[in-house]
Amino acid sequence: LQTYNALIYGLGKAGRPGKAKEIFYEMQKNGCRPDVITYNTLIYALGKTGEQSEAYDYFKEMKQQGLNPDGFTYSAVINAMGLMGHFEEACNLMTEMKELGCKPDVYVYSTLVNRLSKAGYVDRAWSLFREMKEQGCEPNRVTYNTVIAGLGKAGEMDEAWNLLREMKENGLTLDVITYNSMMDGLRRADQIDEALKLFKEMKDVGLVPDRVTYHILIIGLCVINRTGAAWALFQELKERKYVPDLIMYNILIAGLCRAGLVKDAESLMKEMRDDGCLPDVITYNTMIGGLGNLGRYEDARKLYAEMKERGCTPD
RNA sequence: UUUGAUUAUUGGUC
Fold first, then answer.
1. How many angstroms is C1' of B14 away from CA of A199?
2. Global ipTM
3. Nucleotide nearest to A45 (CA to C1')
4. pTM assigned to the model
């Protein structure tokens, strides 16, 4: 049983829910009954990869089999419902678990808070955040990070600052994601200098900025044409021995295109290829847009042809 | 190490 569970888990993580399902049926053929963990793992695998309604089917099936869903089950199903935008159902599931005597834990709340803010329902996310506190479920670092990121996307940085303070007051440790989320919100709100202050602060408290940190700050600086500072950070990233990856190249290419420096963007695209980093659909979209803005329609068309030849599907 | 939640890149809309 544990071997099968582990297999299903691995296939889910590898983004192969179809194979995971095959194993699920194969184990039963071999006389091995799935337990709660098997279902949880399968539901998670399906829910993550766009098979959300199937995830729900297996949720029903496990109940029919007389198995009791637990917090793991509900967080996986609620996440799947949220991804489909079925928030009424997600809320019903919360109610259902309460009725079954299974108190929603911090994972379940955080999952739904995250899905609500991702779907643009920041207000509902906020009330759920308040509700969990009232219900005696203490938000942890991940919950705060989730809410801070949601507020940042909604441009509500005052609230985000309040939460940051609240985290400190509650003795929670801030991590790189906390800082990254704050800095991303600030750069969206055109407060890049505030973001740079936090960047200094995070280093002062001994946190090591990751790639995402640099990506956020470099985007923010590029957008307002502070290219010198952006370039300096790009050098710093390399000093930290972070190899520029696809996302970093996409950010720089977008920055150059935005500034009308499409020729430089083109050479950077060559350079990324030489580094063994293959352009993806975002790279092509960005370049095609940049070329189009300059009226270079023929070159745009060529890139469009090239992306299809390379098996990169236009979106 | 048998299962669950958080941050970044292109376009449109606000």
1. 30
2. 0.81
3. B3
4. 0.91
